Amino acid sequence: MSAAGKVRWRRRAAFHEVGHAVANVVLGHQCSTASVYDAPRISAIGLPCFGEVLTDPELIYPAIEIAVSCLAGPIAEARYTKRSLISCPLGRGSSDFENAQAALCESRFTYADAERQAHELVTESWQAIEATASALIVCGTVGQGTLALICSGGAL
Predict the structure, then answer these.
(1) CB-based contact 118:71 (threshold 8 Å)
(2) DSSP-assigned letter for residue 56
(3) Does the domain made of 3-151 have the CATH classification 1.20.58.760?
(4) Rg for the chain (alpha carbons), in Å?
(5) pTM of this structure
(6) Is the distance from CB of 49 to CB of 9 less than 8 angstroms?
(7) pLDDT at residue 155, as a whole number
């Protein structure tokens, strides 16, 4: 991949991962770091990825919030790239969609409810997503404090 291609993938990955991270912060979920990589790596769950958000797997949240958090990454990426949600996620993003569906399998909420709420969250948080993605592109990793500061309207 060319240097320009790597920069494009890194930017897309940053917006994707920050979508997840900001959703977690806005929803009050624990989120320790968001990272982007220059080349694909194997994620904590064993899938190839260009970045990831680390959370505490021991904490349990409402199904709709888990689904919203799962969908916020691809939705932020789609908004950044100006592409449709289905055509855009890095690495096909299928695990995000599958995780959202799995979270809702025994919920009274539908996938459409989660997608609508995720779109609203990304739209309302777009300024924080852009600011955090910019920091992530430069630093490679942003921590919980930076995420909380930016999401609260603070500046770096």
Answers:
(1) yes
(2) -
(3) yes
(4) 14
(5) 0.90
(6) no
(7) 60
